[in-house]
């Protein structure tokens, strides 16, 4: 065991505050990492405030982790001291079920061990996330950071990047396809960049015409203002795919009508009941599909890092002093960040 420091919530209503705690000594297959940067995901807020009803306290968020290896267990072969590495949303799984055997650890039939607020599979302790000085993780769940990548902007790729890349790859999005991206936050702006790099024709759906110029800067070919009924009617039957990154309840029906027959609407932002109700005719009459996708497996996370390095794709970020994390949460709720906060862990010592 060794001492670490971080920022944690003690209750659903308490602000995040400094906390000293113990990290385990590395097991034979473990990698110990000094954390350099950690992205801030909107799900961190949901969890810290127990908005999903599954939080365990004290709760230390953070699952977009970039750091440097400081120690390895006796059986570790993939990483060595000094390596730059990343840790995303998961730190363990059963590794034997059908999903794990297919490198889809996020769908582990026993449930993956998440990077924070989940019982450790070995000792039952509550996992603590990346808003901290260090972390210890099984090597299977540690990815390599490609040479030359900008480290702070690489952090959100471990969540926002893989969350959008995985469904694009699974559904074969590429040249000749027309895809609509719903929403342009942390997920949406990465969805635009990745879909464009895969060769698709990309359209952003947004509620505001004011975002059109920014969307094109991110790589969108077209912009549709979803509150403009005429623009939505003109888009009927246009798209092969929709990648829906909107994290709150919204009416799916108008968007489904913009799909071609056999088109696929993929949810990656919403995990609440669909409201207003889905009109089944919007699926049945054109053999359309409503699908979902959850982050991505570890092999695919390495793949998206390599893909982003190869194509020069970076997440747009704002650097954050961890002492301002509570203010950052309020800014995120207000939509006042483009597009991801990343904590500089050097400020943890300040």
UniProtKB/TrEMBL annotation:
Keyword Nucleus: no
Keywords on record: Metal-binding, Oxidoreductase, Zinc
SMART domains linked: PKS_ER (SM00829)
Cofactor(s) named in the record: Zn(2+)
One Pfam assignment: ADH_zinc_N
One of the record's GO molecular function terms: metal ion binding
CDD domains: CAD1
Record-annotated Enoyl reductase (ER) domain positions: 11-343
Family membership noted in the UniProt record: Belongs to the zinc-containing alcohol dehydrogenase family.
Name the UniProt record assigns to this protein: NAD(P)-dependent alcohol dehydrogenase
Phylogenetic classification of the source organism: Bacteria, Pseudomonadati, Pseudomonadota, Gammaproteobacteria, Pseudomonadales
